[in-house]
């Protein structure tokens, strides 16, 4: 179709009906079938890696192929490895204890596939955010319909070709299109809908899903803080931030969004961080490893955020202040925003770019209060050596996840649940939590022949005495 939408399933409802009918007819796939589906997916990512790298380059403007491999393809392959290695254990029915009143009897939980899972993915990690949810759905024995982001159309095309080549449409189908297709997609009566995107659109998705009582997992965004203890290792922090704020041009849902430092830490940290960024990108704005901003609209949004902060009194320190003729038009200099205040837009909206506001606080307790006065973040980072102080921050704050003395690394630990809390999301996937999220936990009870219930009949006599024992 001229507008790029998939012709035969532009509304999706007929595709959903076909997938559901096929699911009901075939029943739950066994362990071997699921492991085989995951293997096909893993092999396809490997064999299509060059095309996926080129597609990401086309979508972003500049995103070095090695970066796409390291942050998008690699973690997806690792997640699939983890699922294949653990699937047998996850699928096995789990015994549950039975109280004396319910004996003799056997209680078990069976993890059944839900049916058809809808997946709506974001553009910033267009492979991982599409295929890790897909792999999770397949591991749990489901079928899946996917709506990739229209902001990464080249990657969406490769993903559709690739998935069409290894799965029948009744098992995995990709629907492409813009926000209108996304809105219609989110209203389909799936057995589960997993959405990755902003908190604002997440609200629309949940509203649409409410009409059909479709359960949702919402992987949303927000402002993820970094809290510094007095004994934080500033060199380590500078090194970590120089990566976390520049990889994918800071367009990462769990990128550190702002820094809460103690007053005397601000200057030494700023100097170390800017020096480290310059060292990492010797070509400046034209460096081949500097990923560019996804669209003109996002570029303008980010420039506005910086101008608003400057106008309200922030000191802006850009890593690459001078423009360069050979730089891509959407290359954007990483920048520190010193003396940031809560009144600035950059402290009110998720940044999703290579800027880092720094706010000076008097104490760690102050920093904790600052975080707790705001919506719950997707990630939180703590830098400090004293374990008790770190544990105190862990206990007193609520965030989707945490990395201590590191940035963003919790994402790559496949055995950890990944998701938000409050405004940053509902439900988690990855690892066993993902498998269970996309399964139905069905309890079954098998009473023995002499089960106590068989004594239950009117008149009840003295049996009532046992009811509240
Ligand atoms: P977005 O919410 O702006 O857009 C997501 C998708 O929603 C779009 O592709 C669009 O097609 C669709 N959409 C638009 N209007 C809709 C409607 N009314 N109903 C249903 N769908 C509609 O987000 P984005 O720009 O793709 O991604 C950036 C956001 O995603 C950031 O907030 C980021 O933090 C978040 N994110 C979260 C995670 C995570 O795992 N938690 C990962 C990556 C990105």
From TrEMBL:
This is Aldehyde dehydrogenase. Residues 17-442 form the Aldehyde dehydrogenase domain. It comes from Aliiruegeria lutimaris. Transmembrane segments: none annotated. One of its GO terms (cellular component) is cytoplasm. Keywords: NAD, Oxidoreductase. InterPro entries: Ald_DH/histidinol_DH, Ald_DH_C, Ald_DH_CS_GLU, Ald_DH_N, Aldehyde_DH_dom, Aldehyde_DH_NAD(P). The active site is at residues 219, 253. It comes from the Bacteria. CDD domains: ALDH_CALDH_CalB. Belongs to the aldehyde dehydrogenase family. Gene3D superfamilies: Aldehyde Dehydrogenase, Chain A, domain 1, Aldehyde Dehydrogenase, Chain A, domain 2.
């Amino acid at each position: 179709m001229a507008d790029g939408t998939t012709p035969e399933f532009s509304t999706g409802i007929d595709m959903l009906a076909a997938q559901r009918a096929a699911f009901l007819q075939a029943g739950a796939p066994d362990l071997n079938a699921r492991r085989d589906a995951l293997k096909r997916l893993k092999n396809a990512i490997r064999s299509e890696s060059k095309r996926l790298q080129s597609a990401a380059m086309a979508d972003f403007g500049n995103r070095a192929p090695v970066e796409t491999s390291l942050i998008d393809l690699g973690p997806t392959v690792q997640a699939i490895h983890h699922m294949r290695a653990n699937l047998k254990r996850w699928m096995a029915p789990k015994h549950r204890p039975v109280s004396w009143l319910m004996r003799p009897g056997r209680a078990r939980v069976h993890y059944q596939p839900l049916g058809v899972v809808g997946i709506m993915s974001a553009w910033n990690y267009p492979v991982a955010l599409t295929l890790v949810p897909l792999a999770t759905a397949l591991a749990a024995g489901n079928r899946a319909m996917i709506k990739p982001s229209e902001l990464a159309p080249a990657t969406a095309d490769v993903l559709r070709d690739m998935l069409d080549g290894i799965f029948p449409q009744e098992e995995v189908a990709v629907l492409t299109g813009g926000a209108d297709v996304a809105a219609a997609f989110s209203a389909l009566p799936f057995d589960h809908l997993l959405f990755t995107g902003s908190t604002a659109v997440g609200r629309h998705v949940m509203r649409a899903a409410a009409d059909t009582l479709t359960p949702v997992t919402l992987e949303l965004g927000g402002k993820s803080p970094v809290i510094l203890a007095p004994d934080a290792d500033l060199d380590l922090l500078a090194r970590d931030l120089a990566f976390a704020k520049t990889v994918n041009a800071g367009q990462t849902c769990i990128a550190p969004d702002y820094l809460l430092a103690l007053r005397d830490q601000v200057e030494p940290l700023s100097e170390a961080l800017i020096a480290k960024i310059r060292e990492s990108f010797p070509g400046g704005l034209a460096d081949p490893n500097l990923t560019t901003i996804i669209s003109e609209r996002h570029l303008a949004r980010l420039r506005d955020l910086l101008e608003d902060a400057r106008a309200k009194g922030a000191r802006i320190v850009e890593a690459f202040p001078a423009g360069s003729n050979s730089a891509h038009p959407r290359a954007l200099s990483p920048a520190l925003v010193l003396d940031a205040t809560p009144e600035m837009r950059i402290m009110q909206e998720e940044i999703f770019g290579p800027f880092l506001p720094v706010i000076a606080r008097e104490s760690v307790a102050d920093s904790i209060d600052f975080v707790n006065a705001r919506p719950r973040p997707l990630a939180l980072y703590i830098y400090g050596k004293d374990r008790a102080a770190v544990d105190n921050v862990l206990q007193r704050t609520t965030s989707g996840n945490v990395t201590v003395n590191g940035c963003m690394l919790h994402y790559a630990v496949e055995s950890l649940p990944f998701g938000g809390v409050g405004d940053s999301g509902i439900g988690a996937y990855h690892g066993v939590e993902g498998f269970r999220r996309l399964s139905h936990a069905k309890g079954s009870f098998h009473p023995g022949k002499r089960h106590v219930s068989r004594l239950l009949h009117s008149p009840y006599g003295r049996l009532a005495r046992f009811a509240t024992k």
